[in-house]
Amino acid sequence: LLSEGYFVIGTSHKNSTKATELRKNPNFRGVDLDISSLASIEEFAQSLKGDDIYALVNCAGIVKFEGKTNEEDFQIWNETIAVNLSSNFYLAKLLTNNLAHNGRFVMISSTDSYYGGSVTASYAVSKAGINSLTKSLSLLFRDKKVRVNSIAPGWVSTPMIEGNSQSFYD
Questions:
Q1: Taking the C-alpha atoms of 59, 47, 102 and 26 in order, what is their torsion angle to the nearest 10 degrees?
Q2: Is the pTM above the cut of 0.70?
Q3: Is the dihedral of CA 65, 69, 72, 74 positive or negative?
Q4: Given Cys at both, which of 2, 33, 40, 75 links 11, Cβ 3.0 to 4.6 Å?
Q5: Could you count the other beta carbons within 10 Å of the beta carbon of residue 148?
Q6: Which amino acids are annotated catalytic?
Q7: In this predicted model, which residue has the larger pLDDT, 18 or 35?
Q8: In whole angstroms, what is the distance from residue 99 CA to residue 53 CA?
Q9: Which residues does residue 36 pair with via DSSP β-bridges, in sequence order?
């Protein structure tokens, strides 16, 4: 989008090298955002001061592997649902007035939403929730004609899942 001349607001919670590089582009505004925190999302929404947003793409997501202890699994569940699912609902509700007529709202689901996961139940459930939320938000935004989509890629080798054996991908 930047290479096509669009103005982009990018959010990150960890000041990555990529975010630092993007901040050098005059068409990019970087914002620190804890996507798991309603208060942080509210602060972000207020910072937009009524600016129109044509497209909102939330590609934040986490996966943590369960199975050590119930206590840890419950913590993973809560964190995963907050980041992967609740954040989309909060963004939609808090930015409803900012989304332009005929705009776009895109979320990232996963093929795990269709198959589940023995050690990634919270991840699979959070992504299945996105599939349902896509339909619900389409109804919420119907009067503004905002197109709501979710994209469901399979596993992609990223730093988030590094260290897993090849059998994990098979």
A1: -70
A2: yes
A3: positive
A4: 33
A5: 23
A6: 123
A7: 35
A8: 5
A9: none
